Amino acid sequence: MTPATRHRLEILGAALLFSTGGAAIKATALGAWQVAGFRSGVAALVLFLALPAARRGWSWQVLPVSVAYAGTMVLFVAANKLTTAASAIFLQSTSPLYILLLGPLLLREPIRRRDLGFMALVGLGLAPFFFSAGAPRATASDPETGNLLALLSGVCWAFTVVGLRWAGSRRGEEGSALPTVVAGNLLAFLACLPQTLPVRAEAADWAVIAYLGAVQIGAAYVLLAGGLRHVPALEASVLLLLEPAVNPLWAWLAHGEAPGAWALAGGVLILGATVARTWWDARAAPDVAAGLESPR
């Protein structure tokens, strides 16, 4: 196996691990606060110990960005508890739309003409989730609220990405996003902790928490950190789209949760628009390096 193939497989492996989050979150009877808090606590510890880059580059800029990242993590878990895994991941994947909207306000980056078509397509892809949220079911007890939380998770991720770019510009370099990931997970753990007690959990629940923190986040970021250093930004972004594409499949296999036709149509439109914009941007700026590609 060539080094290039190995690094691509690392990114695909990270995407596959990220994609199991929705099904795993639904596999435990613990509440959203408990799952989000304990998952992030385990992840923060694993990443801090496993990745030397996570222990370097800490500065005051990490704190405000990590707050947005913590919001991403908590809201994503809460969304998965209330709506389908497909809706949660597709709605969170709308974050590039908010990044475009935040650019002029926070980074003084104007919206380009070619961005308008992308924004229109993502907006069109959003519509089915709110006009046809679907009826409540065992694995999605409140789809409308869950969809809103997933959307807010995407907004928080947009603030995270914009914040990372802001912090990098102040330091005069891109730097590593891993300190933000560790700090964000630690903040999520601390914020959720008052709502987690008392804990009444079975061994199976703790096994799910350990998997979510150590494998679905921890091991995934270890693989991602290794692959991103050697794979071009465009290719890495496209490979990581395996996560939202496969996420609903795990939920269907584990829980029999089949997303509605309208949700799938909206998701395909959102992901298709994201691929097209990524490809177009890579043509315009082929030397842009890949940064932190996934929040999960």
Give the key terms.
globular; mainly alpha; single chain; 296 residues
In summary, what is this structure?
Helix content is 75%, strand content 0%. It contains 13 helices and no strands.
What does this structure look like?
The protein is mostly helical and 296 residues long. Helix content is 75%, strand content 0%. It contains 13 helices and no strands. The chain has helices at residues 3-19, 21-25, 32-50, 62-82, 85-92, 95-107, 113-131, 143-171, 178-196, 203-228, 233-240, 242-255, 261-284. The longest helix has 29 residues, at 143-171. It is globular. The model is unreliable at 286-291 (pLDDT under 50).
Helix-strand topology string: HHHHHHHHHHHHH
Strand fraction equals: under 5%
So what's the overall shape?
globular
Helicity range:
over 70%
Low-confidence stretches: 286-291
Oligomer: single chain
Number of helices: 13
Global structural class: mainly alpha
| Strands, count | 0
Query: How far apart are the termini?
Result: 28 Å
Provide the fold topology.
Blueprint: H1 3-19, H2 21-25, H3 32-50, H4 62-82, H5 85-92, H6 95-107, H7 113-131, H8 143-171, H9 178-196, H10 203-228, H11 233-240, H12 242-255, H13 261-284
Helix pairs in contact: 1-10, 1-12, 3-4, 3-9, 3-10, 4-8, 4-9, 5-8, 5-12, 5-13, 6-8, 7-13, 11-13
